[in-house]
Amino acid sequence: MKKMKAACLTKIPKEIEVQEIPVPEIGENEFLVKMHACSLCYTDVKACVHGKHFYIELYGLPWTPGHEMAGEIAAVGDQVTGYSVGQRVAVAPFNPCLECPPCKLGAYRFCHKAPGSFVQPGGFAEYFKVPGEGAHLRTLVLQDSVSYEEAALVEPVASCLHAVRKAGVPQGSTAAVIGAGPMGLILMQLAKAEGAAKVFMVDVDDQRLEQALDFGADEVINSAKENANQAIRLKTGFMGADVVFEAVGSAQTYLLALEMARGGGAVSLFGGMPGGSTVEIPSELLHYHELTITGTSSFSPDDYKNALELIEAGKIDVKRLISHRFDSLDGVLEAINLSLDKQGLKKVVLL
Ligand SMILES: [Zn+2]
Ligand SMILES: [Zn+2]
């Protein structure tokens, strides 16, 4: 049996070692991808620290993290159509069945079958296999102009695009993004690409805010130094932002997002909080301010496709989001530690 290397979480918290495991064997309706780029998502970081991930809950440890992947097709089962060995692809970590009731409503994240068809063993491995069924929804062939590292970032861009489209960013509107981490920077770029005339970036870290200006934010607000709600009102003729994206995931910033939106505006709650978290919100913000509040997590096949198109068209700069590149799977633990220390932006393993 052919062996390969994979980063494996063997114990909670954060015991990660590179192990030799069998290269996944493919069935006639599956294909094998040689991983060339996998970027670390904060969801992986949280899963490695707390062990809370549906795959760990289903199958236990060891578990191979990573779901932002791109690579080259290395083998294709007999029944797979439309794909061939040698194609460069971006692979989304989902496989909605399109037939169950949530899929039929377009709520793919809630597909009754999705968890069972996740890529195996995970992105931080030399090879991973994906189901051939519905492959066109999740496996996109790359243009030569798109590098593997850019293709790995289609996934986080798709998640942000899902949030931006659900909240809606009207032409000429004013948007605010709370949290200037990698996802906040993607949300900011997407809000502009979708039509925002002005985007404010809010964070507590001056260095991150400087960086946000570099990435194209129009104005920044340090919410540790000034009252961000007052600041945005002063800068918008006492209106507030038309749409606010929360990309931190804390009770305090959920509340701030609702406060910063104008009456009748929209708020996108993008940042996730640990299960069981609650948020206390003054009722007038919910009722009298007539806000439209959307929550998103994950994305649809169309978001994934459109995210790649935006990268191809140069409308979203994902290359500059990559702060750390590792040339072996041994880098996964360091990447996790850097993320926990809030160092840098996206960390990518390139093989
Ligand atoms: Zn992700
Ligand atoms: Zn389904």
Automatic annotation (TrEMBL):
Gene3D superfamilies for this protein: Medium-chain alcohol dehydrogenases, catalytic domain, NAD(P)-binding Rossmann-like Domain
InterPro entries, per the entry: ADH-like_C (IPR013149), ADH-like_N (IPR013154), ADH_Zn_CS (IPR002328), ER (IPR020843), GroES-like_sf (IPR011032), NAD(P)-bd_dom_sf (IPR036291), Zn_alcohol_dh (IPR050129)
Alphabetical list of PROSITE patterns matching this protein: ADH_ZINC
Domain Enoyl reductase (ER): 11-350
Names of required cofactors: Zn(2+)
CDD domains for the chain: iditol_2_DH_like
The family this protein is said to belong to: Belongs to the zinc-containing alcohol dehydrogenase family.
Protein name: Alcohol dehydrogenase zinc-binding domain protein
Record organism: Desulfatibacillum aliphaticivorans
